[in-house]
Amino acid sequence: MAPRANWKGTLKVGELSCAVALYTAASTSERIAFHTINRATGHRVRREFVDSETGKAVDREEQVKGYDVGKDDYVLLSPEEVAAAVPESDKTLSVTAFIACADVDDVYFDRPYYLAPSGDTAEEAFALIREGMRKKNVVAIAQAVLFRRVRSLLIRAYDDGLVATTLNFDYQVRSAKDAFSEIPAMKIEGEMLDLAQHIIKTKKGSFDAATFDDRYEAALADLVKAKLEGKKITAPKQPKRGDVIDLMAALRESAGVAGKATKQNKSAGQKKTSPQKRARKPAKAQPPQRKAG
Fold it and tell me: Strand pairing of 73-77 and 7-13?
């Protein structure tokens, strides 16, 4: 069965336009969902809004939106007033510019949607827009009224269709400087950097979403199945945490050169130091490893 469109309208590039439909590309509907149950009766419970002071239930027609402007002081907005603030929609997805994909920082990416032609008469114009973007290796920035707001979208060619990703507003994206302000400036070089690069090279691969498992979802499914079958539920054993070792030792072990480094160090020491000198001046002991605690 064909998926249900979230939105239908017109994709417009200059004077070129075609009817399009927007479909959800990523959804959480397949996740396991739970209801809240009254343990004593086995019945589902329902949510009810109550007055925070009187404790009495408030009927839906008595509920209004309120903007907090101070202690117990609110600006009240009726449903009609809120609805009047929603921008009018002409059902048009208007392309404002074509840019390089790298020009948009991916922290602005919000939610992806599939964009497809709506109806046979739109297919040729849709294909023309798609292939033109693909040949020029660009993405489109467009705007439309979606879900009660004017939204900006990044549109790119994807297989036989397009993917339209809604973009976060600038005020929604927090400053990276605030998050990284306490990271000290450090210069990484020498063997440490060489080992890190070697590890990255040996771990090089390709992206395949099918290889990523939702372990929590799988564990919930197993738990529900075990309950249905009347099996005893046992908590899984927690993995043991290894000792904390120094960074260089961890890098060498990850790179598979821990043993080689030790042999090379010993060999170099034997060439530079005579047996008599070694007897009078023993090799410096390695510091003990720090243990987790």
Answer: unpaired
| Rg from Cα positions in the chain | 31
Q: Which amino acid, one-letter code, is at 12?
A: K
Confidence category of residue 209, pLDDT binned at 50, 70, 90: confident
Phi (first) and psi of residue 60, to 5 degrees: -55, -40
> Exposed, middle or buried: residue 161 (CB in 10 Å: 0-12, 13-18, 19+)?
middle
Q: What is the distance between the alpha carbons of residues 225 and 215, in angstroms, rounded to a whole number?
A: 15
- Residues 207, 243: Cα–Cα separation, whole Å: 32
Cα 249 to Cα 192: distance, rounded to the nearest angstrom: 10
Residue that wins the pLDDT comparison between 32 and 240: 32
**DSSP state for residue 111 in the 8-state scheme:** E
φ and ψ at residue 31, rounded to 5 degrees: -70, 155
Residue 139's Cβ-count burial label (10 Å; 0-12, 13-18, 19+) is: buried
Number of H helices, E strands in the chain: 8, 9
How many residues does the structure list for the chain? 293
Name the DSSP letter for residue 126. Answer: H
In terms of pTM, does the model score above 0.85? no
Provide the residue type at 81 as one letter. Answer: E
**CA dihedral (217, 219, 223, 226) positive or negative:** positive
Cβ atoms of residues 265 and 286 within 8 Å: no
Region 191-213: mean pLDDT is 85
Structural tokens at position 98: 């074509």
Please state, in angstroms and rounded to a whole number, the distance separating the CA atoms of residues 164 and 25.
Answer: 9
> Which tokens sit at 95?
């392309």
Q: Is the pLDDT confidence value at 57 over 70? A: yes
Q: Kindly indicate the confidence band of residue 242, based on its pLDDT and cuts at 50, 70 and 90.
A: low
Give the domains, in start order, of the chain with CATH numbers. 7-27+86-172 (2.40.290.10), 184-199+244-263 (no CATH)
